[in-house]
Amino acid sequence: MNIYIYIIRRLAYLIPVLLGVCLIIFLLFNVVAGDPTAVLLGKHPTAKQMAELRHELGIDKPMVYQYLDIVKSAFTFDFGRSWATKQQISSMLKRGALPSLTVSVPAFVLATILAISISLLVAYFRGKFIDKAVVFVCVMLMSISSLVYILFGQWALAYHLGVFEIAGYDEGFPNFIPYVLLPILIWVVISVGPDVRFYRTVMLDEIYQDYVRTARAKGVGEKMILFKHVLKNAMIPIVTFVIIRIPFLILGALLIESFFSIPGLGGITLKAINNNDFPVIKAMTVLSAVAYMVFSVVTDVVYTVVDPRVRLK
Amino acid sequence: MRMFHLLVLCLCILGGSIGCKKSDDGLKVYNIASTSEVKGMDPIYAGDLYSSEEVGRVYEGLLEYHYLKRPYILVPNLAQEMPQVSRDGLTYTFKIKKGVLFQDNECFQNSKGRELVAEDFVYSLKRLADPKLQSLGWWLLDGRIAGLNEWRDKHANLDVVNYDEVVEGIKTIDSHTVQFKLVKPYPQFLYALAMPFTFVVAKEAVEYYKKEFLNHPVGTGPFQLSVFTQSNTIVYFKNPTFRDKFFPSDVDFTLANSELSKDAGKKLPLVDKIVVNIMIESQPRWLVFQKGDLDYISIPKDNFDTAVTPNKELAPDLLAKGIRLEITPQLDVTYIAFNHDLPIFKNVRLRRALSLAYDVNKSNTLFYNDTALPAQSVVPPGIAGHIPNFVNGFRGPDIELAKKELQEAGYPDGKGLPEITYDITASTVSMQMADFFKARMAEVGVNIKVRTNSWPELENRIQNRTVMMWGIAWGADYPDAENFLQLLYGANKTPGPNGSGYSNPEFDLMYKEASVMQDSPERTAIYENMNKLIASEMPWIFGVHRQQFSLKQSWLKNFIPSDFTTGRCQYVNIDKSEKENLVKSKF
Fold this sequence. Notes:
CATH superfamily of the largest domain in chain B: Dipeptide-binding Protein, Domain 3
Helix content of chain A: over 70%
Order of helices and strands of chain A: HHHHHHHHHHHHHHH
Distance between the termini of chain A: 6 Å
CATH class of the largest domain in chain B: Alpha Beta
CATH topology of the largest domain in chain A: MetI-like fold
Radius of gyration of chain A: 24 Å
CATH topology of the largest domain in chain B: Dipeptide-binding Protein, domain 3
Shape of chain B: globular
Largest sheet of chain A: none
Structural class of chain A: mainly alpha
Oligomer: heterodimer
């Protein structure tokens, strides 16, 4: 099948998926969330003012119209303004995406490269001391709460040693760099443990395949086997693991952004839930669903690149 | 080799960027932290502490609280003098200062700020009442000003709100005189005019920026906004066209802190720039303060023992850095509310029993580092209506008396009493407080089930009356006991501020009588009687009145903590040379 037809067909699935997502959002808002007006009007709401606000927000409309409003904003990507802050949601997302990406992209790239390199190394030394030591360190890194890394990093590396900034963010290149170094380092430390364990398992799955034995029998060197054969064949699970995480990089990391005062999107959904800020919840849910679908298609297409045996149907 | 060059380039960029912090070129910069994001800078939405503080740097109102005097008193700000009030207390006439300019902004002709006139106040108050804008401060004027409710109701169902339509109760006498007519006496009206909701805005700015007005504040205030990133940094510079306003010199400085006298009579504002850093988490805030990059902070709960000794004195290592400790009682009250719609809580003996079983002193130690003042009733110290040395006989801990009251209530050892649901918000401290409450109630045989909610969920449960008991707090909007007593006034039941739904005809009668009285010994006597009545009725389990423990750097001058922080930044000063010397030698 032509790859373009495949992409168009897969993207067309977005329509029923989005309609379903809109229905879920609608049900959650109307069944679970309750009336947002008391929270939005602050300390002194009156029944009359609450009724007026319900009218202004359009939540006194018939249910069908409310659902159609959600569908309309999902397909036009016009989510309007936040109920809680009155800010334009598109501006909020634009403003927050860049700071999140300045931390998440370098951290993700570094963590992925480091984890794949370490897993290749431990695959090479499988069963030996280095392998066991790395697995031990990985489990240890995973067992420690991410909050500990953040608190220790800020106190020891930033406050006492003064190597990094404690917290804050300055917009524009290269002003932001000093502020993102420690968050990136901590992100890498937090990610590397589980990533190495996953990639190591993938590598070891491959290393016991028949083609590896054949290559060895033919006298191919161990390094060549690892880098040319094993790594190439392990790419399918690696690609799946890596690409599907990319859209979520834009959402940043709640704890890291909060502790380092990085004005990203890390806490935007949580804050919206706490404020009953329905337009923001709607925007984040729809955008996450779209991003997930789009990157699933990207993953499929990349499969054909890394493994010519894969055919798209 | 190419890789090596790339690596060197990366290191150069990194090295360069680490040292690229911007300098302030000899400016006096006031560095502070905000513990929450700032929603926006439109005065009519300044319903939370953080937004109102930012609004108060750029905008001003007719009145303000005297910076130095306590108890709080109102003084003219944009008003030339305190208003003339008619004999019936219904008409307030304000002369406004001449020559006050709005800040230069592109919304004005030639980008030059025009002079403030009386019509601006009429426009700003109508904006507060505009039904399409749903301001958070409408409650201040609701049912108070002649013709304003009618104007609002009329426009609620129209597409366009006509600001040119005359409202009887808000009119200009001449270009610099504005008059307000009330429908009934409203002694708190002057306090309303010192609150950010009523601060004056320019019609040109509102119409020019439209919905983005909340991000482009244009006021008459001491500072002009330079950078506003909602969740990162807010930067202000001194407003170059700010009028001649001076640091107060009408106090006896021998009684006050002598340091304050140095700036008496000086033109405001005293600092050139304000940098507000949004720092939600306490650890980075604490560390940044200790590095000298913040000029003051409230001591985070988890760092309290590091900063303050058991004798409530500053820790020696902080003292050595020149840091100073400021302790300020707050005008607030924490409490555990009963839902009075439920028949079981109409039983006063049960309410008293639960209050007696609760150990407020231990709670103070556990959750407020023993810094708060246990509340005897609803009105906090510092305002008329609070009764010094009054002791509430139904406040715990007194397990024996609690058991006796429980028996009198018809529930000996808790028998026959259904399981009581205690609703809280889902935060760690709330959960710890709930566990503590549950354990205390278990001591007298009362079963408590803790239910956690998000804030909107709890609010909805209160509105829908599906709560039994819940923990909550109230901070003063203005320094008048009425603001606390209204929480128990029958007519203010949900969705009004009386969330517990308490109703007592005797209390309501006194409230009605006092609510139209100006501040006087007679009104204070009524407030005190209401306070005593509430103490015996125990409509809530009273918690504490909190105290703020804050730290300030020694180079920060004139800093006086306050419950009403709006606009106070113009009075603080920074000793730049002291800061440079101390940071070099001690930090």
